[in-house]
Amino acid sequence: MATFITCRLANSRAAHHRNSLAVVVVGFLLFSLLATATAWAERPRRPRPPVLSRTLTVLTLNLRAHLDSPRIRELAIAAYLRRTKPDVVIFQEVAPPAAAQAQRVLPKGYAVAHRQNPDTGRGLAIATRHALVDSESVVLPGRGRPALGATIRVRDLQFAVVNVHLSPELTAVKRRQAELTSALAFLDRLRGTGHGFIGGDMNFGDGAPEDALLRRCTDAFRSRHRRLPGFTWDVKKNALAKNNGYASEPSRRLDRICSIGAWRVRQAAVVLTKVLPRPKGAPADGPRLHPSDHFGLSVHLQPLRLPSKKTTRRRR
Q1: Which residues pair with 252 in a beta bridge?
Q2: CA-CA distance, 101 to 70, in Å (whole number)?
């Protein structure tokens, strides 16, 4: 009887040992699989190669048309453009005829597409020092403001640009939403599945309801500067903005450049922020001029190669 009990205990201990060993082996295998999966997920991914070795510089600026000593302001804008030579420039509030004022401030060699705004009499312009393949405009819902689009080619890269100046009234939220929705659809039609961006004076600030429509785009300035305000309409620093805005209108980031497709934002900065020298004969107590009531926004975009479409063959 004692021998039988001893054998049973020995068998029980052996079985327990085998079960414990199996648990350890299974646990080790699961841990190894988990570690392998984590390492695979966190592996350094090869960056998508750029289409161009250099970046494209894009500037958006509201010119304020023929108001507030335009010739003096145009000289300052022209000097900035000669120094920086952006690849693409998008202007809003261009004095009629739109091409004339745009060409006065641009260096030689820029092609210009333009469209007058029947709502204000002022216009939109897109200028580039590369090949302007095509341009067209659409009428946005609401008061008939236009959106101007262009297709531009730089070497092997072709991309679409849409320039907008949305309704300015502080209470026109729904109208701006309809305008922006239509402008984004216009950009999608122009670019197809390729590169493109939309920019201009959008007349709403960060956190506004209209902002939700831009979530599928990359906001160039905000992608580089999470905490900076980036005000392009600054009633504290720009006397033209303070004197020409709506009552109690706050400083806001009204001017945007938002990309769709494979772009890498290299730089983004608010520009044309310096006060101009007081002209001869101007009253000493008169307001100091800036190049415009809006500051400009300059961004550097690098186009990346679009992901290739994978084709699958069905087995027969």
Answers
A1: 233
A2: 10
Q: 3-class DSSP state for residue 88?
A: strand
* Cβ 232 vs Cβ 297: under 8 Å: yes
257: Cβ contacts below 8 Å, ≥ 6 apart: 58, 60, 197, 198, 199, 220, 221, 268, 297, 299
Span 170-208, pLDDT tens digits: 999 999 999 999 999 999 999 999 999 999 999 999 999
Scored b (16 or more CB within 10 A) or e, 88-111 reads bbbbbbbbbebeebbbebbeeebb
Domains of the chain: 56-302 (3.60.10.10)
| Strand-pair partners of 95 | none
CA proximity to 146, closest of 123, 130, 173, 126:
123
Kindly state the helix (H) or strand (E) to which residue 23 belongs, with its residue range: helix 2-41
Question: Which tokens go with 23?
Answer: 């648990």
Query: Whole-angstrom Cα distance, residue 21 to residue 173?
Result: 68
Q: Mean pLDDT in the chain?
A: 87
Residues 6 or more apart whose CB falls under 8 angstroms from that of 210 comprise 166, 173, 176, 177, 180, 202, 204
The model carries a pTM of: 0.81
> 72: part of which helix (H) or strand (E)?
helix 70-84
Q: Give the integer Cα–Cα distance in Å for 275 and 167.
A: 27
Sequence letter at residue 257: I
Given strand 88-94, what is the order of strands in its sheet?
111-116, 123-128, 88-94, 56-62, 296-303, 263-271
